[in-house]
Design a protein that fits this description.
mainly beta, 3 helices
Length: about 170
Amino acid sequence: MQDPNQPTTFSPDAETGRMLRDAFGKFATGVTVITATSADGPVAIVANSFSSVSLDPALVLWSVDRAARRFPYFGSADHYAIHVLAVEQGDLCKQVARDAHALKDLPFTLNADGVPLIDHCLARFECRRVAAHDAGDHVIIVGQVQRTEMRDGDPLTFFAGDFGKLAL
């Protein structure tokens, strides 16, 4: 185990990719599932890169890896939904992480734009894509929030490569 008084210092490069990923993992995040429609049916992807951008207009962002098998679905989606998961939705998250088409086995509804919507999330943002920005091996997708829904509950969190629960 690393001594907390002796941090590891390195310059990110091809040799330190795993260490960089571990360093990024020191930032605790919430967990989201992004859904969209496609020619292959409803698709979903897990992302912890979600962030609010602006209140007026209501904008949010998330990023997707260009090398991801799911990138073609989400890199070109004009409409999508971002679902902020509750702590009890860990199994749903794992199903989506394993299978882009996991929604075929899960309950969902479609919004007016044909986007699959998952119930019982802490928050849901139905978005229209307004911009995409190249960012290294990822694309940052900016969406304008058209509709939202929220409820009270505890968030599903991600820290150091594992799920957790927010400690208050």
